[in-house]
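Task card 7
Instruction: Convert sequence to structure tokens.
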Amino acid sequence: MMRIKFNGKMLDTDFTNTLDFFESVSKNDNDVWIVNGFATKEKIELSEDDELFCIERNTLPPFDALDAMMRARHTPKLHDKLKKASVAVCGLGGLGSHIAINLARSGVGLLKLIDFDVVEPSNLNRQAYRVSDLGKFKTEALKEQISEINPYISTQICTLKIDEENLAYLFKDIDIVCEAFDSAQAKAMMAQNFHKFYKDTILICASGLAGYGDSNSIQTRKIAKNFYVCGDLVSGAKVGNGLLAPRVNICAGHQSNLVLELLVNKE
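Output:
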């Protein structure tokens, strides 16, 4: 007899492997079986305190069970650590909107979203907005979208333009800040001034992500203590070399992936 957690509740079982256990509780072959955050139907030896879920296909689970199921899919111990974290995203264009959605899907507990602009038709080629969002503030449109993706995290919005004055108070109690501005001047202001106020807070910036092709040139670099830059550091937007969704998304993936790595490894 051992004690495991099944569908969010503690359970005593005599089964010694996952295959036998799931075959005893699963209703049909289309159910999804999750073992400690990993979807698998392989035969795995059960251990004390393992976390298992059986999720029915094409069935909306009760709302109070959905969070536990998402936690299971994120990998429980990882999810519990991310749930306690806070990340700010500065600029909610192609980079920032996708960074925020990546982090929301990953279960980061608090997202602070900052932008002053509204959604325009020119944004739709690369940013995470829909035609129905046109004319809305990006902060409000993105918060609404995130609430439909992961309603179990907190989302704070600040509809304003970041400058040297408000920079001094916007990021208190934030673990990591992602810079995702379109403007080179705004990027420089952030990089030059951020650590004057937050010397122990991680800043992740982006530089060089325009155009298409050459995906592997986009890299993550540690520039200094608590300061990272993602991108190729070269490819700026210009005539004939605009901002396109795939390469922008690659850089957004680098930034959000680095956030997860740093949060998980944080002591």
